[in-house]
Amino acid sequence: MIKYKKTYLLILVMCLLHIGIVVHAKENNELLQYLTTVAQGGPIYEVMADGTGDFTSIQEAVEQVESGATLLIYPGIYEEYVEIIDKTVNLIGTDKENCILMSDTKDYHHIPLTIAAGTIYNMTICGSNPTKENMVSFIERDYDSTDLTSVYNWQSQFPGYAIHIDQDYAYGRELLIEGCRIISDSNYCVGIGCRGWNTITFADCEFFSNGGGCIFLHNTQTSCGNGEAYFIMRDCELRNYLSPYIISVQSTGNINPTYLTFQNVKVSTIAYETKRFYNSDNMNTWYSLDQLNDPKIRKFLTNNGYYTAVNGELIQYCSGKEWENIQVKRNCESILENWPNLEEGIHYIREVEDKNKQNLGFTLKGERGKQYVINISNLKSDSPKDGWCGLHNIYLTQQSFGNTLMEMNYPMTVLNEGMK
To answer: How far apart are alpha carbons 85 and 144 in whole angstroms?
Structure first.
């Protein structure tokens, strides 16, 4: 039987102290303040893997609690697929390092966290892929977008994200993911499909990707897509160890204009000298890595208000041997272990002699593309390129600043296209 819990701070403090979750009173107070702010006087339930709480499973709790409820997640590794798709349930972890939601993501349709609205705070969300199945970076779009079965089967060729946000319930609602560590060993860390009048915010989060990049986002052409959407990322760190693209953004049409805001986003990613890893269909109109290495272009961009927040050179060349030292070892017993240090900026990998190391399991079709760290695509090749990096109907806001990548910062002046 579900217990209905009122938000009495004293009771929660005693519970937290009893199991030793938080030692310092200040940290206790911060967690409890956050918890009660999110709950807004609604019910709070405890999820404890040892069976001493209201639930032992996050998904079990989600299915039984009412919309608007808050789940306080205690330490443990919760190996399950959590789906919150038709209600608002908040997940508040007591300890980011030890409150872990984790599952195998070899199947695109089985994802650690599928969610549309609410607040996720102070947790680690990890998509593993120990068998490394479906490890491909690009497959041609050979599906019928009007046939759900066709789309489903095409998606099944890919592994899953760590977090998937693409539900009609999101229409007119907000989702905040804050203070979390998000790990993916196969696909992008987060896959996002926007909805009308929907706001998605990531704040103070760490992203670690050893498969796809960190963020995949698209707007929507559904009945619930009509209206503006907002994606905000602030004070986050994105680390990408394998994919040529750290971010991919896709515009699907006219009815869901989407506004992107990046603030103080630290990027550490890799790029490849060889073009075999790059999508020839990338519609990115920003400067390629080769162009950014041109001193004249860098000076021109700086003079026109573009900048990078990285200390030192934005693009750093490294040899195949140096790259091996920062590569995530795929035979690690756990991808929850400390990840290799990857300094801020773009690490441009010189082509290595070993062809097996070059291939890395990537399967790209068509001609080789130019090197960009952001992959851009529109519904049609002749769509108006009026938005961010050549997107149609997806725009960078003037509130974007302090980011590693130059194109993520809104310029202080209008860029003169004469340099292109």
So the answer is: 24
Range of the domain at 308: 45-419
Q: How would you write 290-315 as a 3-class SS string?
A: HHHCCHHHHHHHHHCCCCCCCCCCCE
Structure tokens at 242: 């394998």
Q: Tell me if 28 is assigned to some domain.
A: no
Instruction: With beta carbons less than 8 A apart as the criterion, state whether 335 and 185 touch.
Output: yes
Measured in Å, how far apart are the chain's first and last C-alpha atoms?
A: 66
CA atoms within 13 A on the CB side of 371: 20
Residue 341 in any domain: the answer is yes
pTM over 0.90: no
Averaged confidence pLDDT in the chain: 85
**DSSP single-letter state for residue 55:** B
Whether residue 39 is contained in a domain is answered as: no
- Cβ–Cβ under 8 Å, residues 396 and 256: no
Integer CA distances (angstroms), 387 to 46, 94, 258, 260, 419, in order = 44, 40, 10, 10, 18
pLDDT tens digits, residue range 41-60? 899 999 999 999 999 999 99
pLDDT per residue as tens digits for the range 310-339: 998 999 988 877 887 777 765 555 788 878
Domain count, the chain: 1
